[in-house]
Structures are given as structure tokens and as C-alpha cells.
Amino acid sequence: MHLLLIEDNPDLVENLCEFLESTGHTVDIAYNGITGLGFAIENSYDVIILDLMLPGLDGLEVCAWLRREGRDTPVLMLTARDTLHNKLEGFASGADDYLVKPFALPELGARVGALARRARREITQQRLIVADLQYDPDTLRVERAGRRIELAPIPLKILALLMRRSPGVVRREEIEREIWGDDPPDSDTLRAHLHALRTAIDRGFESTLLHTIRGMGYRIAGPNGQ
After folding, report:
1. Res 137: pLDDT
2. Distance between alpha carbon 106 and the CA centroid of its chain, in Å?
3. What mean pLDDT is predicted for residues 102-125?
4. What pLDDT shows up at residue 148?
5. What gap in Å lies between CA 194 and CA 127, rounded to an integer?
6. Which of 126, 141, 166 is a domain's end point?
7. How many CB atoms lie within 10 A of CB 71?
8. Helix or strand or coil: residue 157?
9. Residue 119's domain spans which residues?
10. What's the CATH number where 133 sits?
11. Residue 109: what pLDDT?
């Protein structure tokens, strides 16, 4: 995982980095809130480990700023303050978890892993993902291998249906009913929209995702059938 550590204690930074890197993580380091906020804005991280007491901006300010800007990277807040009021302040600022110093390094590692897994589950629930193809129903954004794909409304609806049912086969009649209800157009219309969809998501890529199952229908699936 790619982690951001925002902590002003050099000894603790050294210990945390040694532990996290020994377990296979990549760690970026910021020693103050302003630098840490800049890193969090410019880069993508799986988890941010954020100290509460920092020079420049404190951890509450950094976390609150990220949440106001819609940044949803999981934040594990570190602090020597252990009162209920302090913890509630941390959660109110947008922190996802709270660890009081001193702490055991394996516990920190476990909490970081749990936050990352939860975030991945939430992303998967929000987005439709098949192989390297992703569709976000909230933003209507389609990407394949990081490349933005633009689709007209009807191919986009067909894509959503096929991705929701992947790797299953969706019959032609079901696609027509989903898109046009009880008044489908002639067969060439659906064929034209499927051609546009296939061109958009498959042309220029090594593997084909949109498959025609003769006599049955269509499906979207990766090279291994998943």
C-alpha cells in the first residue's frame, strides 16, 4: 500500500517507517501539517496516518480540510490525548480511526490494513469493475486502464446492465426491455449501439471485454472469463 505519514517526531517517524516498509508498504513522510496537506492533495494514498499535534496546521485542521474538499482517503489519527472529548473531536473532523500513543506497532499495522480493506469494499460497491474497466454510476465516468471513455446515453445504459450482470450473459430481449421498455426499435438500432460500445471500450486494448454469445446475447468479461 501507499501510505502518507504526517508526524513531527523524528524518532517515531523512523520507527513507523521501518515497521511499515518492512511489511511491504511505501511511505511518504511529512513533518508538518502544511506539507502533509500538500502531499494529500497532490497524491493518491491508501491510508493517511496523521498526528494530532503538528506545526503549521494541526491534525484536526488537516483532516477537516480534506473532508471539506471531498477527499475520502481513510485517516488514522495518532495522539497522546486519550479523553473521550479528544476522540470525539478527531472523529468529528473526519478521522476514520483513532490510536492513542504509546501504541504497539502491530496494532497500528492491523488498523491501517483494516481501513484500507474497508475503503476498497466501499469503492467496489460504488463502482462497477470488470477487469481494467470501471464505471462510476454517480459521476457517469467510464475508464479503462486509466483512460477516460466517453459514451452516449444508450451505450452507457447497456454498459451498466452488462457490467452489473458480469460475467453472465444478458439476452438481447432483456437489453431491449431495459433500454426501451415494451416498445423496442428495430434490431439494427441495438446492433448499432452495441457496435459503438464495443468500439469505445475495446478498440486499442489488448484484450476484448464485450463478447457476443451467438444465439443468446452479450456479456462483458475479462480475459479469464471473470
Report:
1. 85
2. 25
3. 82
4. 93
5. 21
6. 126
7. 17
8. helix
9. 2-126
10. 1.10.10.10
11. 92
In sequence order, which residues have a C-beta less than 8 Å from that of residue 210 and are 6 or more positions away?
Answer: 162, 194, 197, 198, 201, 202, 218, 219, 220
Question: Do 106 and 197 reside in the same domain of the chain?
Answer: no
Return the C-alpha cell found at 141: 465516468
Q: What is the DSSP letter of 45?
A: -
108 plus 200 within the same structural domain = no
Q: What is the dihedral of CA 84, 90, 92, 97, to 10 degrees?
A: -100
Estimate the crossing angle of helix 187-202 against helix 153-165, to 10 degrees: 80
Q: For the chain, report the end-to-end CA distance as a whole number of angstroms.
A: 24
Query: Is residue 214 classed as helix, strand or coil in its secondary structure?
Result: coil
Backbone angles phi, psi at 220, to 5 degrees: -115, 125
Q: Which residue has the cell 476484448?
A: 208
What pLDDT was estimated at residue 220?
94
Yes or no: say if 211 and 169 are a contact pair by the CB < 8 Å rule.
no
pLDDT value, residue 68: 84
Q: What is the pLDDT of residue 124?
A: 57
CATH number of the domain to which 118 belongs: 3.40.50.2300
Closest CA to 76 of 99, 58, 53, 54: 99
pLDDT in tens, 117-153: 887 766 555 778 899 999 988 888 999 998 999 999 9
Strands (E), 43-136: 47-51, 75-79, 97-100, 128-130, 133-136
pLDDT digits (tens, 9 = 90+) for 81-100: 776 777 777 788 888 888 88
Stretch 152-172: mean pLDDT: 90
Rounded to an integer, what distance in angstroms lies between the CA atom of residue 209 and that of residue 151? 16
C-alpha cell at 57: 496546521
